[in-house]
């Protein structure tokens, strides 16, 4: 028993790790409170785990040869003190390892980065302290996030960056700014994710959420700026 807190799991996913059939672990706890969070039930770190760790690993044992990968998602996986042990255990079963993170803790990220094969790194806002605090509902220093991102770029690991386009937090100009900032850091892989209003959001209309995706100039700019770019509905 490693003692990681599992808040949920997807036993078969084709969308959480590019070109891999994966099982996804949603780890309990997140230091952030993004206003667009779809997984608020995963935010509280002291919430009771909903899936027994041993049961999940015995499921993985049975799926050897049928699944390619295990993705550690959240919540924020870097909050788990035993994340590297859990990754090692999944690796020892022969699985390729994915990690979804916002990079809030560079020390925790440095510990697990050598163990993972691919990272999905969330970019919540342009790299501006106030804007990032608003988008994450937290006071995490922007510098910590940038340290994690730069570490990822320098590692040579396969990764993608992606932004959820919440019109309450981001404008089209902000996406141009993010793209410029990612390009300056040598990032070649970026994705725009559509925001679907959470139940408490009475402000965002379908039209507001779609504005990023129907802006031909923006999409064309992003296609030219990144080697790999797509939109996700
Ligand atoms: S980082 Fe993810 S899980 Fe945490 S609050 Fe933001 S959207 Fe929710």
Report what the structure shows.
This protein is an alpha/beta fold and 233 residues long. The longest helix is centred in the middle third of the chain and has 14 residues. It has 8 helices and 8 strands, in the order ββαβαβαβααβαβααβ. The mean pLDDT is 96. 35% of the residues lie in helices and 21% in strands. Strands 1-2-3-4-5-6-7-8 form an 8-stranded mixed β-sheet. It binds iron/sulfur cluster.
Task: Describe the structure concisely for a colleague.
The protein has 233 residues and is an alpha/beta fold.
Structural descriptors:
globular; single chain; TIM Barrel; about 230 residues; alpha/beta; binds iron/sulfur cluster
Topology:
Blueprint: E1 6-13, E2 22-27, H1 53-62, E3 69-73, H2 83-92, E4 96-101, H3 106-112, E5 118-122, H4 129-136, H5 142-155, E6 158-165, H6 172-184, E7 189-194, H7 206-214, H8 216-225, E8 228-232
Parallel strand pairs: 2-3, 3-4, 4-5, 5-6, 6-7, 7-8
Antiparallel strand pairs: 1-2
The chain binds iron/sulfur cluster.
The site of iron/sulfur cluster has 12 residues, from loops.
